[in-house]
Amino acid sequence: MNVKPNAFLAKLRAGTPQIGVWVGLASPFAAEIIAGAGFDWAMIDMEHSPNDLTSVLGQLQAFAAYDTTAMVRPEWNDAVLVKRLLDIGAPGLLFPMVQSVEEAKKAVAATRYPPNGIRGVSTSTRANKFGRVTDYFTKAEAELAVLLQVETRAAVNLAVEIGQVQGCDGVFFGPADIGADMGILGQPMHSDIWDFILPAAKRLMAAGIPVGTLVGDSTFARRLLDEGFTFVACGVDAGILSRGADALVKSMKA
After folding, report:
1. pTM score of the predicted model
2. Domains, the chain, ranges and CATH?
3. Known catalytic residue: 190?
4. Distance of alpha carbon 197 from alpha carbon 46, whole angstroms
5. Core-most of 16, 71, 200, 249, by most CB within 10 Å?
């Protein structure tokens, strides 16, 4: 038994645009509903949801039967948490609030075994199918997506340097937090925020570094893909549910 190729990572490296979805309902049942929709990738969120390791495990298992690549955003750049997420089989991680090249290197190191990093070694995990994947220790790192999220003005200004850290597979812009840092709180689609993000995104693209983000407007998401973003999430599971429920009630009361 061999390491499974990472479909998201293969397309990312080929420059193929991919649409994604944010998953924060912390439910394997809800995750399976999303999994059948046909998104290229999904991000199981631990930063802004009640997810823990057990709920993340259940959601990874729910996605396993589908073609969508389900990755995880840990709540912080924490090597202990990263080790545990990798052991339960996360095929990709999005590290939040990366502020410097040093923090980017720390994130990558948490995903690498010694001597290239600090990941602890277990010989029997879900990731290696409990010892059955014979090439896990030599091939797993090449099939793991490491994505770094920039969320402040200072980090955006360093985006190319962060993206050039060896082992980084892509840079992800967090418009809500970037906007908050600019004094524009709660307006992630504000034009001033995107006027700041887009030139940095173009610099990354020129350097050959894949660029991603999350936006709630599908028209704008398509525009970003047309402009060279390679992985864009266009919705959040909780938002999809709440808007659908609101629309149904409104149509009935009308």
Report:
1. 0.97
2. 7-253 (3.20.20.60)
3. no
4. 24
5. 71
